[in-house]
Structures are given as structure tokens and as C-alpha cells.
UniProtKB/TrEMBL annotation:
One of its GO terms (cellular component) is membrane. One of its GO terms (molecular function) is hydrolase activity. Keywords: Hydrolase. It comes from Acetomicrobium mobile (strain ATCC BAA-54 / DSM 13181 / JCM 12221 / NGA) (Anaerobaculum mobile). This is Metal-dependent hydrolase. Residues 35-234 form the Endonuclease/exonuclease/phosphatase domain.
Length: 243
């Protein structure tokens, strides 16, 4: 099976002008053209499962269309989307922000899927997709080190409670690299698909490893590569695995 993890930055793009005329101005850009390019790129990879971090559930940027649904219509499969903020947060009532989330587009029919919420941080959503032989957890962790540490502790408990092998993937915002994940990796017994620790951010000149695909030892990773594309500020991870 082929799994692709990609923080697409809501398809708002990147470049020197992203922060002009003021910081993060680019997040208000219209996204349809860039998103079509991202979808075409992913379609060529022929993935079985795509984990989309920072996808748009239907704001004005995408003319009210859900990016996961649009992608599913192009590459096939079913879309599963969740807003990444805690439902009771004021953020979920704010235009644009309420449409910001994470998604799984899957050609493999899942047994079930649900959204869980971590106890700490602004970005709390944990998207859980259960398949016949494994469970996929998709996350986007907090920018704050203290909150992120607590989130990782909760993720370790969640992974250990799974009765099936797990894949834990997402943008972990680990500015300290893999060392931040070591307690979770050691406690749960996971492996890092990116064993060479190739950086994933920023896409134009990668220096930091922020995006991870971790997996249980029952899963065999046959290949992992990181295409050098600049549709987003992150690079995608393409992971071929088997059970």
C-alpha cells in the first residue's frame, strides 16, 4: 500500500510574497488553481491513502468547496475531514479558521473512523481511521513545546491502547527533530519510516524535520521518498508499506 503524508498549507502556496503586505497575508489567497496542481501531483503518485494536514473544508478560498472531497473526486476514494480545533473553542466560530483541518482520502474502505481530541493545545484533533489490519492516526501538533509534550504523552497512550498495528502520521512541529519523539517511539515501540531523517521544511530549502510517519513493527516499510516540490511550505512523504 502507498501512503502519502502532505501538509498542503490549505493550498495557499508559498514564496517570498506570502507575508506581504503583512505577516501571513498569503493565508487569505484563493486556492483553486494551486489545489488542482497538488491534486494532479498526488494522482500521479497513485496513493492508496493520503493524509492531508492543513486542508480546507470549504472556505471562500476554495469557493466553498471541500478540498478533501475535491481530491477524492480526482484520485478516487472517500474523504474524511475534521476541523483541527476543539469544537468548543471560539476559533470554530471564526470564518476561514472553522474550515481549517486535517483529512484522510482513502481508496481502501475503512472499518470505522472518528475524531478524538487531545487535552492540550490549540490544534487538538486526532483523526482516527481504522482499517481491517491497522489503525491510522493523523495529527497536527501544537507549536508550543509544553503543550506538544503533553500531546505526545496522550498519543503514546492512544497508540498503546490500539488492538491493531498503528501508523501515526502528521506534522508534529518538532523543532527539536526526532529527539522530541523519542519518548513516544521508545514507549510504544514504533519505528520512523524516515530512517535517514531527511528534513521536510521549508520546501524551498529543507532544514527541519517536522513531518513524520511512525509505525508499529508488524508493519513493513518497503520504501520512503520525499519529492522535492514546492506547492506548499512542507514537503510530502511517500511511504510504501505492507503488513
Amino acid at each position: 500500500m502507498r501512503f502519502v503524508l502532505y501538509n498542503i498549507r490549505y493550498a495557499t502556496g508559498t514564496g517570498w510574497d506570502y507575508h506581504i503586505p503583512f505577516p501571513f497575508w498569503g493565508c487569505f489567497r484563493k486556492t483553486e488553481k494551486n489545489f488542482k496542481d497538488i491534486s494532479s501531483f498526488l494522482m500521479k503518485l497513485n496513493p492508496d491513502i493520503v493524509g492531508l494536514v492543513e486542508s480546507d473544508g470549504g472556505s471562500y478560498r476554495q469557493n466553498g468547496k471541500s478540498q478533501p472531497k475535491e481530491m477524492a473526486s480526482q484520485i478516487g476514494g472517500m474523504p474524511i475531514f475534521c476541523c483541527k480545533y476543539y469544537p468548543e473553542s471560539f476559533i470554530t466560530k471564526t470564518p476561514i479558521l472553522k474550515s481549517q483541518g486535517n483529512a484522510v482520502v482513502t481508496k481502501i474502505p475503512p472499518v470505522s473512523h472518528k475524531v478524538r481530541y487531545l487535552s492540550y493545545g490549540v490544534k487538538r484533533a486526532l483523526l482516527e481511521v481504522e482499517y481491517e489490519d491497522f489503525v491510522l492516526y493523523l495529527v497536527h501538533l501544537s507549536l508550543g513545546r509544553k503543550a506538544r509534550t503533553k500531546q505526545l504523552e496522550e498519543l503514546a497512550e492512544r497508540c498503546m491502547s490500539s488492538k491493531k498495528p498503528v501508523i501515526l502520521a502528521g506534522d508534529c512541529n518538532t523543532f527539536g527533530g526526532e529527539d522530541e519523539l523519542f519518548p513516544l517511539i521508545e514507549r510504544v515501540g514504533l519505528k520512523n519510516a524516515n530512517s535517514d531523517l531527511m528534513p521536510t521544511y521549508p520546501s524551498s530549502s529543507p532544514r527541519m524535520l517536522l513531518d513524520f510517519v511512525l509505525y508499529s513493527p508488524e508493519i513493513k516499510v518497503d520504501n520512503l521518498f520525499i519529492p522535492k516540490v514546492t506547492f506548499s511550505d512542507h514537503l510530502p512523504l511517500v511511504c510504501d508499506f505492507s503488513l
